[in-house]
């Protein structure tokens, strides 16, 4: 088991009122497995991603990465886990420093973990992601959304993580680019046995990408199962989501 999330809870307190962003979330993920995390805006998808990446502390429950409990990890452990668990955000332009070229930002990540371009298999990754030195020498505002998002995937994969968490990474792309980026990500994860949690509210893209589906509603799991079960045995809420496609 690569990732195990057990009874995870995340609350926020404002004016003595407690709001549950996540409530009793439990699921697991094997090495190289792909999981689609679906839900409307505000359902808790991004909160769950940030909590797994240790960017936001859990209120209750436990997260295991391998055999190690990572909730409450030390700074040293968090640094190691930042290499093993990589988060790719929705807006690629905001994820890169505006005054650094894409190449500078990618090299900074490699230097942070003491990796050379050769050890990181950077040339091969560039080829597979259809990127070249000309594109990577540009600044974020000088490239297209698709190029910037592929550069973000390159930056995440070059440190050889075990788990990618992709938070709405195709949301800002048009349909042809959305399909292209999803296909590239699928191929790269399969060839490198990298597990992936693919967060989206785009059901069509989710079902094409992942064989397993987890649906969040108001911070709780509404459905967990295979893509086939999602289509054939929907809950009341997932039936509403499916009806929205018609």
Can you describe this structure?
By secondary structure, the chain is an alpha/beta fold. It has one domain: P-loop containing nucleotide triphosphate hydrolases (Rossmann fold, 3-Layer(aba) Sandwich). Helix content is 39%, strand content 27%. It has helices spanning 45-52, 75-84, 92-95, 102-112, 122-128, 133-136, 145-157, 175-192, 203-209, 227-232, 236-243, and strands spanning 3-14, 17-29, 34-38, 60-65, 68-69, 85-88, 163-167, 195-200, 212-217, 220-226. The strands form two sheets. A six-stranded mixed β-sheet has the order 6-7-8-3-9-10, with helices on both faces. A four-stranded antiparallel β-sheet has the order 2-1-4-5, with helices on one face. Strand 9 and strand 10 form a beta hairpin. The longest helix has 18 residues, at 175-192. It is globular and about 50 Å long. The chain starts with a strand and ends with a helix. The mean pLDDT is 93.
Structure in a nutshell:
The chain is an alpha/beta fold and 246 residues long. It contains eleven helices and ten strands. The chain has a single domain (3-243), classed as 3-Layer(aba) Sandwich (Rossmann fold), CATH 3.40.50.300.
